Amino acid sequence: MTESLLSVEGLEAWYDESHILHGMNFTVGKGEIVTLLGRNGAGKTTTMRSIMGLVRKRTGSVRFGAVETIGLSANQIARAGIAFCPEERGIFSSLTVKENLMLPPVVAEGGMSVERVYELFPILKARGASQGTKLSGGEQQMLAIARILRTGAHLLLLDEPTEGLAPVIVEQIGQIIEKLKEEGFTILLVEQNFRFAEAVGDRHHIVEHGQVIDSFERHEVEANREKITGYLGV
Amino acid sequence: MAFFDIPLPVFMGQLLIGLINGAFYAVLSLGLALIFGLLNIVNFAHGALYMVGAFVAFLLLDIAGIGYWPALLLAPVIVGLFGIVIERLLLRPLAELDHLYGLLLTFGLALLLEGAFRHFYGVSGERYAIPDALQGVFNLGFMFLPVYRAWVIVASLIVCIATWLLIEKTRLGATMRAAVENADLVRAFGVNVPLLVTVTYGFGVALAAFAGVLAAPIYSVNPLMGSNIIIVVFAIVVIGGLGSIKGAIVSGFLLGVCEGLTRVFWPEASNIVIFVVMAIVLIVRPAGLFGKAA
Ligand SMILES: Nc1ncnc2c1ncn2[C@@H]1O[C@H](COP(=O)(O)OP(=O)(O)O)[C@@H](O)[C@H]1O
Ligand SMILES: [Mg+2]
């Protein structure tokens, strides 16, 4: 494993009184694609929202590079260089496609230029003036990914980017994620679609009841396929 | 010339009064809409802050000899800063609770402000002179239009349009619209949304104060001026669609005119016509004329 960019240790989180995360432990190395897999309700989204600072009551440690972010607020964490693409995509209906794309402020140098973003996602240029939510589901997902590439954030949190999308769109998103890896982005990916996850992921963590209960390197997947599908209940 | 047996000057006169009232309605409901969008509270202190704006203009003149034109800028700035303090000190701690608490707090604040000014100034009101440059009347042929009243309409229109452009056409405006929809996600992009909320409250309140300064030379500066107008403005916000910027501006002017015309044709109904319209709109389009259905 390379030098770790994100390291989550003993992360616990609560929604009001319900205790959701019970000590999550995992790391994401620089330039890696690491996945969190697990059944519905396992706590994958909550993990991402906790890393992002959107779950208020959380304890443990989340280190991003040299920075401990557990005590920071969401906007400070984003400014540190972590970008979030939420499960429900979060395209704003009162904003045009272009406004959605330009919304996240630049937090560091070295983000993609708008031209490069349009090269990767030509549809966004063509539909720039449309209302954000008038795009198809697949296009909205593209937009949700595209808008966090401009910001200069190095770590991308992608929550189920393939959920509910047609196979050809899933394929396109897979290609884009590969390209992002080539360009040096580090990605933490939550997936229900294991075939997709194993195609792009370098390492996989199985989440159950708010904990990582097992982990597999890319080369270990083949030998453990039955075990993994058992965990995921597919 | 007559219109439905109504002499044209009377008709145009009421239309004009309607437009002027509409100008105040529009600026006030615009501020309410901005605040409602980002803070999710109906700012019951809005009328009182409009009154405070008028009083600040009056006091600037009375105490410091600062006249109308500087006051038009200074009073909104002072009241806006006051609003920022209110938001930080009083509203922010309530943000996590039910919105009812924020509403109650602003209601209490309105009572306090009104009570305080009543204590010192009574209810008879203080006169505030029309500035020299806006004295006089335009002769339109069929009627005389006081210059100051024309100015009120123009100034309100400018402020409304400028605010609308800010919200709809700028990056800051896009960020505000996004924060109205999903504040958490906007924070997760690195935007300091709490700061945006504070500034928005200050700006909404400054708009109320601006309307107050505009009103000072027309109505006397009176501790009760806010509570007289604010109930109508709440109705207008509901008609336009809670939180809708365009709705607030358009319905403000529209209902001012509607009220004026009712005064021509059926004077007894003019005080309630806006509430009747509100009831009809709520039945036919519960989200308001420009509101998005939930
Ligand atoms: N906003 C919330 N309030 C209360 N409980 C929640 C909330 N969001 C999720 N949960 C609960 O937390 C658990 C984990 O949910 P989540 O992290 O969304 O799972 P996953 O993304 O793995 O499907 C679930 O039991 C879910 O019901
Ligand atoms: Mg989820």
Note down, in words, how this protein is organized.
Chain A: Keywords: Amino-acid transport, ATP-binding, Nucleotide-binding, Transport. Chain A: This is ABC transporter ATP-binding protein. Chain A: Residues 6-234 form the ABC transporter domain. Chain A has helices at 44-51, 74-80, 97-102, 114-120, 122-126, 137-146, 167-182, 194-200, 225-232, and strands at 4-15, 18-29, 33-37, 57-64, 67-68, 82-85, 155-159, 186-191, 203-208, 211-217. With 234 residues, chain A is of the alpha/beta class. In chain A, the strands form two sheets. In chain A, strands 6-7-8-3-9-10 form a six-stranded mixed beta sheet, sandwiched between helices. In chain A, strands 2-1-4-5 form a four-stranded antiparallel beta sheet, covered by helices on one side. In chain A, 46% of the residues are buried. The mean pLDDT of chain A is 95. In chain B, helix 1 runs parallel beside helix 5 (147-169) and helix 2 (46-64) crosses helix 9. Chain B is globular, with a radius of gyration of 19 Å. The longest helix of chain B has 32 residues, at 8-39. The interface between A and B is medium-sized, with 25 and 19 residues. The structure holds adenosine-5'-diphosphate and magnesium ion. Magnesium ion (MG) is lined by residues 44-45, 87 of chain A. Adenosine-5'-diphosphate is lined by residues 15, 18, 20, 38, 40-46 of chain A.
Can you tag this structure with a few keywords?
heterodimer; A: 234 residues; alpha/beta; Rossmann fold; six-stranded mixed beta sheet; four-stranded antiparallel beta sheet; 9 helices; 29% strand; globular; B: 294 residues; mainly alpha; two-stranded antiparallel sheet; 11 helices; 71% helix; binds adenosine-5'-diphosphate; binds magnesium ion; transmembrane transporter activity (chain B); transmembrane (chain B); transmembrane helix (chain B)
